[in-house]
């Protein structure tokens, strides 16, 4: 095989890997089902929307993910760099479980709660680092 053919073949393989990998954090279906079941159990007695979102955020994402990612993956203004978007499957699980438990809630209200939790986690981390 000549060099040009090898390069073309490698480019095809790279494209295929990019398409199939999608999100590096994506869990296999069986593990995701277990995660969903665990999340349902964790929030089964939750009465407030904020508490429900907080429990799910802290179970589904690490503290570092919570402060370094965003719901949309878009920048809020032109002077900042956009944060990467949260894992889509986990974020959808969170939204669906919150809506299922608190039927009156909207997606935008959930987003607001997520942002409040992000600020809280960031503040906690900053306080801990100042000690």
CATH architecture: Orthogonal Bundle
Which fold name corresponds to the CATH topology?
Arc Repressor Mutant, subunit A
* β-sheet strand percentage: under 5%
By DSSP, the count of extended strands is 0
**Structural class by SSE content:** mainly alpha
Q: Given this structure, which CATH class is correct?
A: Mainly Alpha
Number of helices: 6
Main pleated-sheet profile = none
The rough form would be described as extended
Q: Helix coverage percent of residues?
A: 55-70%
How does this model look, in words?
There is one protein chain. This protein is mainly α and 131 residues long. The protein has one domain (28-129): Orthogonal Bundle (Arc Repressor Mutant, subunit A). It is built from six helices and no strands. It has helices spanning 3-21, 29-43, 49-60, 63-68, 88-101, 107-129. The protein is extended and about 65 Å long.
